[in-house]
Amino acid sequence: MSKLIQDIKTLGAGVGSFTQLDFGMDESDWCALTGASQGHVVGWWEGKVGAVDFPATTADEVVWLAEGRIALTDAQGGRREFAAGDAYFVQAGFAGRWETLEDAKKLYVLLEKPDSTLKA
After folding, report:
1. What is the mean pLDDT of residues 35-62?
2. pLDDT by residue (tens digit) across 70-111?
3. Which residue has the higher pLDDT, 14 or 72?
4. Which residues pair with 110 in a beta bridge?
5. Nearest to residue 23, comparing CAs of 47, 59, 56?
6. Which of 54, 76, 104, 110 could serve as 41's disulfide partner, Cβ 3.0–4.6 Å?
């Protein structure tokens, strides 16, 4: 059956299930939907200035930074900054530090691997 206009999902703050995150900085998340294929999650994240170290991720992530400025630093010290309007892709297996340099908001899609084996 064809999808209809009412099947289109809006995304952003206030859409989906809300979670106040507790990873060491002031941040929150709205999980808007998960895909019928069970392989992806779409959501809206908001965070205040702060930083957190994190272990290797288990999913690829596509991000569009709607507001603010952030920096990602990898385990070897390589660093990259992103600002409002930037879009980027982070491969599963990335580990390092997330810094919210200015209060930020992002739209994200997590793309889960079909198995637990990480591939480069």
Report:
1. 85
2. 999 999 999 999 999 998 889 888 999 999 999 999 999 998
3. 72
4. 41, 61
5. 47
6. 110
What's the pTM value of the predicted model, to 2 decimals? 0.72
Could you tell me the end-to-end alpha-carbon distance of the chain, in angstroms, rounded to an integer? 37
Cα–Cα distance, 16 to 52 (Å, whole number)? 25
Tracing tokens 């895909």 back to the chain, one arrives at 35
Cα–Cα distance between 59 and 34 in angstroms, integer? 14
Residue 7 corresponds to which tokens in the numbers above? 């099947």
39 close to 114: Cβ distance less than 8 angstroms: yes
**DSSP-derived secondary structure for 7-56:** GPPP-STTSSEEEEEESSSEEEEEEEEE-TTSSEEEEEEEE-SEEEEE--
